[in-house]
Every structure is written in C-alpha cells, then in structure tokens.
C-alpha cells in the first residue's frame, strides 16, 4: 500500500489511503504499525493533491490514525503534528468541497485535543479565521467541529498573543448566534467554546456579554440538557466582572443555579456552585439575593460530597455579607 501511496496513479493512491484508513480504524496496534511503516508523511503529501476525493481520503486516514474509538492515540497525534500535517489541513478548512472542510476540521480537532504544541501550531497556521467562517457553514457537523476546535485553541493560547486574541474575538458573534441553533450539539459546543473564551481575556469576556450571550445562556440553564456546560460559561462570564455579575442576575440565573446544586450529576453541581461563587464575589447585592433564593441549605449539603471545595468557597463568599 505504501508504494501505491507514494508513486501510484491518483486512483491507486486513493485506494491505498482508503485501505490504510480501514486498517487503522479503532485498532491501536494497526495504527502503530502503519505509523512505523512510514505512512504518515505520504498521507500528508496527499492533502495537497488536485483531486478532492483524494484529499478527503488522505485526511480521513490521518483522522483514523490519530483516534481510537473514544480516545486520542497520543503517539500518532504528536507524530502527525510534527510531520507537518497542520498547515495543509488548515488550508483544507477552506476547500471548495464541504466534506473535505468537515474532515479537515475533525482531524485538526483531534490533533489539538489536550496537546498544547498542536494547539499553538494550529493557531499560528491561521486556522482561526477559517474556523470562524465555518461557524456559519450550512453543514451542522462543520459548525460543531469548528466550535470545538476554537475552544481548544482558546484554551491553548496565551492572552498575550494579540493576533490570536483579535481572531478569537471574531468568533464571538457567530458562537452566540449558535446558542439558538436548531442543533442541540451545536448549541452545546457553542456554550462550551464561549465558556473557554470568557476565561481567555477580560476583553473577550465583555465582548461575549455585549453580543447577547447572557440571556441565551440563562435560557439554556433552565432546560434539561447542557446545564453543566452553561453553568461553566456563566461562571467564567461572571468572574471578576461586576457588570456581568449584575447582568447574569438580572437575566434570572440565580434560581436555576440553586436548583442545579441538587442535580444528579456531580459535575453539574460543582459548576453551579462555582457560578454562584463568582456571582457573589465582592457583590453584596448578589450575596443577599443568593441567600434569599435558598442556596444555603443545598450548599451545606454539598459539604459532605464531591463538590465540597466549591460549596465551601461559595458559603464563605456569602458569609462575607454578614
């Protein structure tokens, strides 16, 4: 297969990439063997071929090399990034074929997951602008992948990178619009990305609020899904921002956050407690409102559970009003 991958006709190259994709699919031993055999570099070269079908097949093969069923193949993730795949994959984010754009975003998303080196490389390769445009794509999978990857890039980039900060700021309006998308998965990825972006810099935090995210997030807080993701986003929007603290309370967030303190999911309880903590911090009006909402009893109950630290900090912030 490798000879065909390197020197075959376009049809032979596509067939070889397809076979490698199949061999690699959810099979860690095959993934390792294919990487050892030297398949990564020729697959990367195929990302720049003239045939859209060949570009897509090469990207899909790299995708399968980088991922097992529900976890990343960390060794191949690193090898693919260091072999030079990131820049051509970023170029494919603007391919004329929608499927190619989606697959490129998916591969980059897996390459950037929990990998700071790749996150920085993807941002430096100029991915943020194309990803912002993908947020407005007609294909729901493209939107979901773009939002997820933007979240990873925000998490991996430092606030001091002015170019990255400016590019990320451009993602705010389309992400806020996605909070009301038809796709629940797109809504959740948008809320998650906005939560990370809110923690990136005070300027982006304020931009998210100005774009109308707070009301939309509080609406989602009252729903049956994505409660933890939404609570995290509100927590980061409230952090250190008196104007956002007030806006979140005006939007009616306290009552649903207090209800989430008794949610069946531990992570949701923790995020709700943290959100209330940030709303109460140095804000006596919010402290009074949270106490009056009945938060004390469920917070005290959390002192015996997995959210003990978060509950303690929130109770301490409420006690500051006494």
Automatic annotation (TrEMBL):
The ARM repeat ranges on this chain: 38-71, 84-126, 126-154, 212-252, 252-294
A Pfam family recorded for this sequence: Arm
Ranges in a coiled coil: none
InterPro entries documented for this protein: ARM-like (IPR011989), ARM-type_fold (IPR016024), Armadillo (IPR000225)
Protein name, entry field: Uncharacterized protein
Source organism (scientific name): Zooxanthella nutricula
